[in-house]
Amino acid sequence: MRKVTLPEPRPDKPARSTPERLTDAVEELLDQRDDLDLSLREITTAAGANVAAVNYHFGSKDALVNAVIERALTEHARQQLVALRAVEAGADGGVEEVVRAWLSPSVLAADDRRTTLIPRIAARVVSGGSPELRDLGTATHTEVYSLFFTLLAERLPALTTEELTFRITLASVAVSSMIVGTFDRTPIAGNPPVPRDEHTLDRAVRFIVAALSAAPTAPAAERRR
After folding, report:
1. Which 8-state DSSP code applies to residue 156?
2. Cross-strand pairs, 188
3. pLDDT tens-place string over residues 120-149
4. d(CA 97, CA 164)
5. Which CATH superfamily is domain 69-216 in?
6. Does residue 3 come out as left (phi exceeding 0), alpha (psi in the -120 to 50 range) or beta?
């Protein structure tokens, strides 16, 4: 009789804690839908937990969802910081390298085949529908914008602090509109919208670099002379 060799037993994965099951459930549910408005029943059913567990570990359903959103924003900021610090550590990175480092994580998140939280968070912020998300995004990305501003200021010394702030703000709004989808749904002068593709990042980088690097605008007092 032929001897049958049984496979070695695989070690069991450690059981997930209740907070982990709850946060994982929120992430999975958010991946399946276009909004950020989950019900408590949806979450507890997916996690195999009860309402008391949500309140015990997070205080409320909203606090649980916000914890997952904050984690996504923190990871997005981390990716931007890693890229920007690599430029900072280099010897010859110009404005284009700085912009590409800052922009890449946002464009790649929007182009991911899976639904991602970042575009939907950006949509809420751009629409003005959630001041809380705006403040959370500001808090998680404070270090990103500080380094981004510093690197650009070093490379664009002709721009005043006010002018550089203005241009970065416009660039941020443009990027937010692009990643939430309004960009590729907007016809211009009867021309069809331009869909995102493999060239979108390069085109966006060149456009933002040109806008940031344009000659300074003369102060109003000088223009009136």
Report:
1. -
2. 191
3. 777 777 666 678 888 888 899 999 999 999
4. 17
5. Tetracycline Repressor, domain 2 (1.10.357.10)
6. beta
Residue closest to 31 by CA, chosen among 122, 149, 117: 117
Residues 12-67: pLDDT tens digits? 556 778 989 999 888 888 877 767 788 899 999 999 999 999 999 999 998 888 88
Cα angle: 38, vertex 42, 45; to 5 degrees: 150
Select from 135, 111, 108 the least CA-distant residue to 121: 135
- The token pair that represents 33 in the structure block: 């839908």
Please give the Cα distance from 197 to 136 (Å, whole number).
30
Contacts of 62 (CB under 8 A, 6+ apart): none
Q: What residues does each domain of the chain span?
A: 16-59, 69-216
Alpha-carbon distance of 63 to 38, in angstroms, equals 12
Q: Which amino acid is at 18?
A: T
Whether the CB-CB separation of 164 and 153 falls below 8 Å is answered with yes
Whether 29 contacts 38, CB under 8 Å: yes
What would the pLDDT profile of 176-201 be if each residue is shown by its tens digit? 878 776 666 778 888 888 777 788 88
Q: What percentage of the chain reaches a pLDDT higher than 70? A: 82
Q: Tell which CATH architecture fits domain 16-59.
A: Orthogonal Bundle (1.10)
Q: What integer pLDDT is reported at residue 7 of this predicted model?
A: 47
Name the maximum alpha-carbon separation found in the chain: 104
Please say if the pLDDT value at position 10 is more than 60: no
Q: Tell me if residue 109 falls in helix, strand or coil.
A: helix
| Total count of residues recorded for the chain | 225
